[in-house]
Specification:
Blueprint (H helix, E strand, L loop, with lengths): L1 E5 L6 H11 L3 E4 L6 H8 L5 E3 L13 E6 L2 E6 L11 H10 L3 E3 L7 E4 L5 E4 L8 E6 L7 E6 L5
Length: 158
Protein backbone atom coordinates (compact mmCIF):
# COMPACT_ATOMS: atom_id res chain seq x y z
CA UNK A 1 0.00 0.00 0.00
CA UNK A 2 1.32 3.40 -0.96
CA UNK A 3 0.69 5.96 1.80
CA UNK A 4 0.96 9.68 1.13
CA UNK A 5 1.94 11.66 4.25
CA UNK A 6 1.22 15.40 4.34
CA UNK A 7 1.66 18.01 7.03
CA UNK A 8 1.43 21.72 7.68
CA UNK A 9 -0.77 22.61 4.73
CA UNK A 10 -2.07 25.80 6.40
CA UNK A 11 -5.00 26.22 3.96
CA UNK A 12 -2.95 25.46 0.86
CA UNK A 13 -5.02 22.94 -1.08
CA UNK A 14 -3.31 23.07 -4.49
CA UNK A 15 -0.06 21.31 -3.52
CA UNK A 16 -1.98 18.62 -1.61
CA UNK A 17 -4.10 17.90 -4.68
CA UNK A 18 -0.98 17.85 -6.87
CA UNK A 19 0.67 15.32 -4.55
CA UNK A 20 -2.41 13.06 -4.56
CA UNK A 21 -2.69 13.26 -8.36
CA UNK A 22 1.01 12.52 -8.81
CA UNK A 23 1.25 9.65 -6.33
CA UNK A 24 -2.19 8.00 -6.57
CA UNK A 25 -1.95 6.69 -2.98
CA UNK A 26 -4.04 3.98 -1.38
CA UNK A 27 -4.11 5.97 1.90
CA UNK A 28 -3.57 9.62 2.86
CA UNK A 29 -2.32 10.73 6.28
CA UNK A 30 -2.41 14.40 7.31
CA UNK A 31 -0.41 15.46 10.36
CA UNK A 32 -2.23 18.68 11.17
CA UNK A 33 -2.04 22.41 10.68
CA UNK A 34 -4.64 22.71 9.44
CA UNK A 35 -6.76 19.66 9.97
CA UNK A 36 -9.71 21.37 8.29
CA UNK A 37 -7.82 21.16 5.00
CA UNK A 38 -8.53 17.44 4.97
CA UNK A 39 -12.24 18.05 4.39
CA UNK A 40 -11.63 19.18 0.84
CA UNK A 41 -9.32 16.25 0.17
CA UNK A 42 -11.92 13.83 1.54
CA UNK A 43 -14.52 15.34 -0.76
CA UNK A 44 -12.28 15.30 -3.84
CA UNK A 45 -10.90 11.78 -3.22
CA UNK A 46 -13.79 9.91 -1.65
CA UNK A 47 -12.32 6.51 -2.52
CA UNK A 48 -9.00 7.12 -0.75
CA UNK A 49 -9.04 6.58 3.02
CA UNK A 50 -7.76 9.61 4.93
CA UNK A 51 -6.70 9.82 8.57
CA UNK A 52 -5.68 13.05 10.29
CA UNK A 53 -4.51 14.39 13.62
CA UNK A 54 -4.77 17.97 14.84
CA UNK A 55 -1.81 20.30 15.07
CA UNK A 56 -1.07 23.18 17.39
CA UNK A 57 -3.19 25.41 15.10
CA UNK A 58 -6.17 23.01 15.39
CA UNK A 59 -7.25 23.36 19.05
CA UNK A 60 -10.99 23.36 18.32
CA UNK A 61 -11.22 19.94 16.67
CA UNK A 62 -11.58 17.78 19.76
CA UNK A 63 -9.70 15.02 17.92
CA UNK A 64 -7.01 12.92 19.59
CA UNK A 65 -3.51 14.35 19.17
CA UNK A 66 -2.08 10.91 18.46
CA UNK A 67 -3.37 7.99 16.44
CA UNK A 68 -1.96 4.49 16.22
CA UNK A 69 -2.93 2.83 12.95
CA UNK A 70 -2.27 -0.57 11.44
CA UNK A 71 -1.60 -0.02 7.74
CA UNK A 72 -0.40 -2.74 5.42
CA UNK A 73 0.37 -4.91 8.42
CA UNK A 74 2.57 -2.26 10.10
CA UNK A 75 1.92 -0.11 13.18
CA UNK A 76 2.18 3.63 12.53
CA UNK A 77 2.04 6.30 15.25
CA UNK A 78 1.02 9.70 13.93
CA UNK A 79 0.97 13.04 15.71
CA UNK A 80 1.63 16.64 14.76
CA UNK A 81 4.63 16.76 17.09
CA UNK A 82 3.92 19.80 19.23
CA UNK A 83 2.69 17.53 22.02
CA UNK A 84 6.12 15.86 22.02
CA UNK A 85 8.00 19.19 21.73
CA UNK A 86 9.79 18.01 18.56
CA UNK A 87 11.24 21.45 17.88
CA UNK A 88 13.50 20.91 20.91
CA UNK A 89 14.18 17.17 20.79
CA UNK A 90 12.74 13.96 19.35
CA UNK A 91 13.18 12.10 22.65
CA UNK A 92 9.51 12.27 23.71
CA UNK A 93 8.25 11.34 20.25
CA UNK A 94 10.63 8.39 19.99
CA UNK A 95 9.63 7.21 23.47
CA UNK A 96 5.93 7.43 22.59
CA UNK A 97 6.46 5.41 19.41
CA UNK A 98 8.46 2.75 21.21
CA UNK A 99 5.87 2.49 24.01
CA UNK A 100 3.18 1.98 21.36
CA UNK A 101 5.21 -0.68 19.57
CA UNK A 102 5.12 1.37 16.37
CA UNK A 103 7.35 0.64 13.41
CA UNK A 104 6.86 4.14 12.00
CA UNK A 105 6.72 7.49 13.81
CA UNK A 106 5.09 10.30 11.81
CA UNK A 107 5.19 13.94 12.90
CA UNK A 108 5.17 17.43 11.44
CA UNK A 109 5.35 20.83 13.17
CA UNK A 110 9.00 21.65 12.35
CA UNK A 111 8.37 22.08 8.59
CA UNK A 112 11.66 20.16 8.06
CA UNK A 113 11.45 16.90 6.14
CA UNK A 114 13.25 13.84 7.51
CA UNK A 115 13.05 10.14 6.77
CA UNK A 116 15.48 7.77 8.48
CA UNK A 117 15.59 4.54 10.42
CA UNK A 118 16.79 4.34 14.01
CA UNK A 119 19.22 1.52 14.96
CA UNK A 120 16.33 -0.39 16.59
CA UNK A 121 14.39 -0.33 13.30
CA UNK A 122 11.94 2.50 14.06
CA UNK A 123 11.30 4.73 11.05
CA UNK A 124 11.22 8.45 11.87
CA UNK A 125 9.36 10.53 9.28
CA UNK A 126 8.45 14.18 8.96
CA UNK A 127 7.10 15.06 5.51
CA UNK A 128 7.97 18.74 5.92
CA UNK A 129 5.43 21.39 4.95
CA UNK A 130 3.32 20.80 1.87
CA UNK A 131 2.63 24.55 1.82
CA UNK A 132 6.06 26.05 2.48
CA UNK A 133 8.40 23.58 0.76
CA UNK A 134 5.85 21.49 -1.17
CA UNK A 135 7.43 18.39 0.34
CA UNK A 136 5.72 15.17 1.39
CA UNK A 137 6.58 11.62 2.38
CA UNK A 138 5.69 8.28 0.88
CA UNK A 139 5.50 5.02 2.77
CA UNK A 140 5.23 1.62 1.15
CA UNK A 141 3.60 -0.70 3.65
CA UNK A 142 3.01 -4.32 2.68
CA UNK A 143 2.36 -7.24 5.02
CA UNK A 144 5.50 -9.27 5.64
CA UNK A 145 7.71 -6.75 3.82
CA UNK A 146 10.03 -4.14 5.34
CA UNK A 147 8.77 -0.58 5.55
CA UNK A 148 10.02 1.64 2.75
CA UNK A 149 10.10 5.42 3.11
CA UNK A 150 10.99 8.26 0.80
CA UNK A 151 10.66 12.03 0.66
CA UNK A 152 9.44 13.88 -2.39
CA UNK A 153 8.89 17.44 -3.50
CA UNK A 154 6.51 18.76 -6.12
CA UNK A 155 9.50 20.44 -7.78
CA UNK A 156 11.20 17.06 -8.28
CA UNK A 157 9.46 16.58 -11.61
CA UNK A 158 8.69 12.92 -10.91
Amino acid sequence: MKVLVLSDSHRSLRPMVEAVEREQPGQILHLGDLMGDTGELRYAYRDVPLAAVPGNCDPWTGEREEKLLRLGGHLVLMGHGHQWQVKHSLDRALAAARRAGAEVLLFGHTHRAVCYQEPDGLWVVNPGSIRDTESYALLLLEPGQPVRCSLANLDDGN
